[in-house]
Amino acid sequence: MSILYNLFGKILFVIYSVVGSYGLAIIIFSILAKVLQYPLTKKQMESSRIMKAMGPELDEIKKKYKTNKNKMNEAMFKLYDKYNYSPTSGCLPLLIQFPIIIGLFTVIREPAKYVFSAAQFANVDMSFLWIPD
Fold first, then answer.
1. Are 15 and 110 in contact (CB under 8 A)?
2. Which of 65, 95, 118, 126 is 20 to 30 Å from 38 by CA-CA measure?
3. pLDDT per residue over 77-133, tens digit each?
4. How many domains does the chain have?
5. What is the pTM of this model?
6. Quick check: is 133 in a domain?
7. Domain that holds residue 13
C-alpha cells in the first residue's frame, strides 16, 4: 500500500503546487478520485438495480426449492442468465474501490509523511477559507 500512498501523495502535491491551497487541493483531489471511480460505481449501481428486479423471482425460487439446494442453485443460475447478471458484479467493483479510498484517507491524514518533505511541511498553511488548522 506504500506505493499507492506515495503515488497519491505526489498527485496531491502537484495539485497543491498549482492551486496554492491545501484545503482546495484536497477537494480537487477528492473530486478527481470520485470521477475516476465513476465507471466502477456505475457498474455497481447497475448490478444493484438488476438484483432488485430479480428479487421477487429469487424469493419464489427459494420457496419452491427450499429442500433441494442443487435445484435451487440451478434455477438461480438460469435466472442470472435470463437477466444477464453476474453474482460477482456487485462486490468486485467495491473490492477495487476500497484500497483507493483507504489510500486517499491515509494520504490526507498524514500529509507530512506522504505529500510534503519536512522543510516544505513547516511552511504549508493548512487553513482553508475561515477554518484554521
1. no
2. 126
3. 888 888 888 777 767 777 888 888 898 888 888 888 888 876 777 677 666 666 666
4. 1
5. 0.69
6. no
7. 2-123
